[in-house]
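Quick illustration, no need to memorize.
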Amino acid sequence: MFFRGPIRSMNYARFLTAVSAARRPSPIRILTELQQRSPPSLISLAGGAPNPNTFPFQSATIKVKGGEALVLDEPLMKRALQYSGSYGIPELLSWMKDLQKSLHNPPTAGFSPERGQMEMCVTTGSQEGLCKIFEMLVSSGDNVLLDAPTYSGTLAALQPLGCNLINVPSDHHGMIPADLRKILGQWDPAEAQKPGSSIPRVLYTIPNGGNPTGASMTHERKQEVYELARKYDFLIIEDDPYYFLQFQKPWAPTFLSMDVDGRVLRTDSFSKILSSGLRIGFVTGPKPLVERVVLHIQASTMHTSTFTQLMVSQLLHNWGPGGFLKHIDGVIDFYRSQRNSMLSSADKWLKDVAEWHPPMAGMFLWIKLKGIKDTQQLIMERALEKEVLLVPGGVFNINSSDPCPYVRAAFSLSTPQQIDEAFRRLADLIKEAM
């Protein structure tokens, strides 16, 4: 990947909030990490961990579809029920680092730690990773760029921080670089690193199968956005929980794959492909920033569940990279079929009263209702009477009270027959309201 201009030496300290800059490593957490890397002969009187012999759980056997069972014998169960390091258990991190390198070939993998070498940590779902990143980077009064509409959980995390959210227009191909360039044009890029500069230091985007729009950003647009990030020296938060739900191959190159400076923080999730209840996510990015994310984890959750980490790690090691990707192919086939069923039913019932673009990833169809200025009352009141439920589009806007003619329909859970009936009911509802 070639980008114009010299490779930057990133000043990561200037991106940190006062809260994040004040974080210091937990001495107890450091001792926990040291103990886990030490030989069994070490006698530790340092930790305040409970004795696992007092726990009621002894062992577990977990049946896996079409594969060998996962067995947590008594010694492994004792480990699974105990505290672990804040980065994540070593064998899971090692597996995931290898996967990230094979999928994305990030330039930062060969960097020095100080320059922004690729690092990873495990989080309790990607949502925790996002919240920690926002706490680390976003202060009251900061300007933050994001494509809107966007994931309501992101808005819930950002808005209480008192930042100024700047909507970058998007379409069914994701964020529009020309509009981003126009927004940034009000600032002089030479001012970016000066104290007190109001130039945005963070851009947030969901590049594949965006929630709620289903939009996927093209490779060309990502390149243009990354060039602007270099010019104005801001960080890119690449929130990609639907990366493994892309319906066409080859999968789109990621911001991480083109990160020649070390300015991309990427969040991944196993929620859509292994289990949402296990709460396993990952943050990948420059080592100085991931180290800081870990300090925020130390002060809150301490670490993601050791039990779920060990369970997932055993599964991945049993599968190997080929088995993992084979599982992904099956998941993609399912959601592609679900999407096609929803598109077929939409064409059958809604073509005269709504419009949409087929999503290339994810699990959502973003539908614009004709002749309806705002879907809030229609969905939250009248749709319930018709026994059909969607999400009114306004909840995904920075200002949720702004009129919005869109609704979000999810094709993940319902059967094709249920989807068809739901759209029949929705069509009747729209016709009555027109």
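The chain is about 40% helix and 15% strand.
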